[in-house]
Structures are given as C-alpha cells and as structure tokens.
C-alpha cells in the first residue's frame, strides 16, 4: 500500500476521515475544531489526521501552539482521474455489449447515442447488506 | 469499515485489485484468466477477488467448474459521487478565497469565471515520496 493512489483510497476508506475532509473543504480548521463534531478524543482525531497527512490529502501549518489543517488537492485529482478513466473503459465495454445485443435481438427501437438504458444493464448488482 | 463507501475505497486501495477491475472493464474473465498477468498464486488472486466481491465491485457467475467474474457498477458510482460532491465543495471554497484575495489585493486583470488559475492555488502539496 505504498503507491500514492492506494494511499489516497485507503485514507478515504473511513467515514470519520471523509467527514474531516468535508469539514476542511469549507475552510481551514485547527485540530481542536476538527475534533469538536466527533465523539472522539484528540489523540484519536490526530491519528486520523496523520493518515490523511501521509496520503497528502491535508497539510498542517503551525501557528505558534496551534496547528491549522488545510486540504491539498493533488491526490484527490488522481483518485478522480482513475475512477473516470475506469468508468470510460467500462462504459465503452457496455456500449459494445449493447451493440451486440441489439444485433442478435434485432433492432427494437431507434437507439439514441449514449442512452442511459445502456448503463443500467449491469447495475443490478447485489444490494450491499454488510451489517 | 463496514459502510459501503468505506468498503469501496478500501477495495480500491490496492494496485492489483485496481488492475483486476481494469481487466474486467474490458470484459468478463475467469479467475484463471485474471491471475495470468500477475506473478501471483491463484489463492492470492482469489483473496483479492473476495475483497472486491465483498465490496460489491465484482460478481462471480458459476459456469460448471469455472467461475466467471464481472464488474458491477453501483459502488463505483457512489465513490465517484462522493469525490465529485467533495470537489464541488472544495472548489466553491477556493472561489471564495480567490474573490477575497482579489478584493484585498485589488483587481489585477478581469477575472474570468471558473478560470483554472483558481484551482492551482492549493495544488502545491508536498510531492509524495513514499519509498
């Protein structure tokens, strides 16, 4: 888990860390301010902040005793790029499948390019029930 | 790490698992076919596939002895939505900062709405060097 993209996704794999990022998206904050909305100790929050910092998602600026946290954008851009690239591949594959199905079933109605019906074909995954 | 979004990001936090998804984006494959490009044992690949399956990112269809894997889209959509929503928040925050800086520094040149220069302000994070 040493490559930057893996570190980014690993850092995002926690609801508290995502909430911290959402809070920081609204403006810089001190560690104390970030801890406030969570029923967590400062050390627990600091641990989450360290994970975010190691992943390069946030940076800390010292201001005397207080440390301000701010978000940094580059890792999130890489994560978004990967997901978008992946989606492009996957949707192209679905288009091929759709074209194939249309060919073997015969044309039913005029196909509109990029029609959303294409994408729904494979979205019938099992609903997640991870209790 | 039980919520679906955390499971998705955790599953994506590994280069082998991302490569498996990229391969499956090109079409369904058997476990053996998926293992081929990796210098890994079948049990090691199976473990990665289990993580992807638990996160709902792939599904397995039995075809006699062979098991075909295919990707499922819903969790990736949630992950992409979260990143996009977050980026929207964050960019709005940058726009406010930009407007504030323009106000205190005085107008230098006519600002074009949504100019990319705004976004580059905070991208000067430390380059990741996690060797």
From TrEMBL, chains A, B:
Any GO molecular function: DNA-binding transcription factor activity
Keyword set includes DNA-binding: yes
The protein's name: DNA-binding transcriptional ArsR family regulator
Keyword Repressor: no
Keywords: DNA-binding
Residue segments, region Disordered: 104-131
Compositionally biased spans, kind Low complexity: 106-125
Span of domain HTH arsR-type: 1-91
